[in-house]
Write a structure and sequence with these properties.
heterodimer; A: 436 residues; alpha/beta; five-stranded mixed sheet; 15 helices; B: two-stranded antiparallel sheet; 22% helix
């Protein structure tokens, strides 16, 4: 067992990371060995694999962090014919881990997808890629072509190019898009009601989760648990960007202190905070960098692992300005179907911009807090909740700056270049009622 | 019973808030703020009327189910 932090030695998913080019099937087989054929475990192989996944403690790596085995068991108990949806939408602008996996370990993801399809006796597998990420679809197609001579897979695999936007990767939005509808989130008061593509039950898994499944199937739960946090075992992929010298995707043990991960990416200078989880994540001050990157410990700071995003903000940046930019981006990325999100997020962005400009008086300050509370939990999906979390964490971590801005003293850094990569906002699919 | 609002269906007509202002508030953007807790017994009939008057069928009265 390696010590937490020496994660270079614990690379499992990104074995060939650092080399040029794609991991071909022969290279993949050389590195990981053949996938255990389901026949080897017959007749109870599916039960065996689900038990191993349960014992491994694997949780979904897409953001929600739900135990992988529970989703599997529930879907399997519904009988054959499920549509397995592989979520490779990666709508989080600061995340590159899905792309990294398709580049470095496409066969690990496809192994995992095939295994899960086998467990579910799935009708088919649909790999969903955002239409602005066509090179990724090419990588997947190349990997699928390499696998074809081995004979038919456990379930046919399709690649679907779907309109890419922030909310498109949300589970219900994705299922709707696969079913031929508009990829916007559905209102689901009871999350235990399964999602469906037509009459078929749908199960959505993130690409990284499936890659871990492929490894657990090969090496077992005990091996998986050898690294990571006891409460959250294994490794995870993290995309580090912002004020670092080597932005990119790293594989770390879950539970690696934030500071260690950031050090691996080489901070460009003294840092003041890091945005953890994603653009709807939480800011964490550099004074908390000993905090392990693990769900329970991040929760104490109001953050989550999310999609494994870390955006480092250097001492020369302005947290208030960056938060205003994030809020504006998130407002533009609203699906536009729920009033509090459609109107509330732009209002919050307005208030934050005034604060960043040093034009916010007490009225604006109070209004911002009221609006944040007013959007929280009032959407069909959790898009507005994420913005509420982001703003609250910013007001906490940048409390001193916020007070100075509020008194009319914007920091010199408020016009500094952004550490964020904000994709051009897509025009929201507003309901006809709001079209002007 | 409790009120459940489908925010994606709601278009902010506001009839519900006019019918039971004691229960359903209105935010600054004109969308109803529905309490998460149980509907007090004496407001039950009014809440039912609010549900029935929603042009978008966005509001529902549901029995409270203990999660478990």
């Amino acid at each position: 067992m390696t010590a937490v932090g020496t994660s270079v030695d614990t690379a499992r998913l990104l074995t060939f990371f650092g080399e040029e080019g794609r991991t071909t099937l022969p290279l993949h087989l050389e590195a990981y060995g053949p996938l255990p054929a389901p026949a080897q475990w017959a007749p109870g192989w599916a039960e065996h694999l689900m038990a191993e996944i349960e014992r491994s403690g694997l949780t979904g790596r897409g953001g929600a962090g739900f135990p992988a085995h529970r989703k599997l068991r529930s879907a399997r108990s519904a009988g054959p014919g499920t549509v397995l949806i592989v979520n490779a939408m990666e709508g989080e602008p600061a995340s590159a881990k899905d792309r990294a996996l398709w580049q470095r370990s496409p066969h690990l993801v496809l192994d995992g997808a095939e295994l899960v399809a086998g467990v579910l006796r799935a009708e088919k597998v649909v790999v969903c890629v955002a239409d602005d990420r066509e090179p990724v679809a090419g990588l997947i197609a190349a990997a699928l072509a390499e696998r074809r001579p081995r004979g038919p897979p456990l379930a046919p695999v399709e690649v679907a190019l779907l309109p890419g936007r922030f909310v498109a990767g949300e589970e219900s939005a994705l299922v709707r898009a696969v079913a031929g509808g508009t990829g916007i989130p559905a209102f689901r008061p009871d999350k235990s009601v399964p999602l469906r593509v037509g009459r078929r039950r749908a199960l959505v898994h993130n690409v990284e989760t499936l890659a871990h499944v492929a490894l657990i199937a090969r090496y077992g739960a005990d091996w998986f648990r050898e690294v990571g946090d006891p409460a959250a075992p294994g490794t995870c992929l993290v995309t580090v960007s912002g004020d670092v010298q080597r932005p990119g995707v790293l594989e770390v043990e879950v539970g690696t202190p934030l500071g260690h991960i950031i050090d691996r990416a080489g901070p460009s200078g003294p840092a003041q905070a890091v945005l953890v989880g994603g653009y709807a994540g939480g800011w964490v001050s550099s004074t908390d960098w000993a905090t392990p990157f693990a769900p329970a410990q991040l929760k104490t700071l109001g953050a989550t692992m999310g999609a494994g995003v870390l955006v480092v903000l250097g001492a020369g940046g302005c947290g208030i300005r960056e938060t205003a930019r994030l809020a504006r981006f998130m407002a533009a990325e609203s699906a536009g179907q729920c009033g509090p999100c459609l109107f509330g997020l732009p209002s919050i962005a307005d208030d934050l911009e005034q604060l960043a400009d040093g034009r916010a008086d007490g009225v604006v300050w109070e209004r911002l807090w009221r609006r944040v509370a007013l959007v929280d939990g009032r959407g069909a999906c959790r898009h507005p909740d994420g913005v509420a979390r982001l703003v609250r964490s910013a007001m906490d971590v940048f409390a001193g700056d916020a007070a100075a801005h509020g008194q009319g003293f914007p920091c010199p850094a408020s016009n500094a270049p952004s550490v964020l990569q904000l994709a051009a906002p897509v025009a929201p699919g507003k309901k006809d009622m709001y079209c002007i | 019973m409790k009120l459940v609002l489908n925010p994606a269906a709601c278009d902010g007509f506001g009839f519900c808030s006019e019918i039971v202002p004691e229960l359903i508030g209105m935010d600054e953007w004109g969308f109803p703020v529905v309490p998460a807790g149980p509907v007090p017994a004496h407001l039950g009939p009014a809440a039912r009327q609010a549900v029935n008057c929603c042009p978008r069928r966005a509001l529902q009265l549901q029995p409270e189910v203990r999660a478990g």
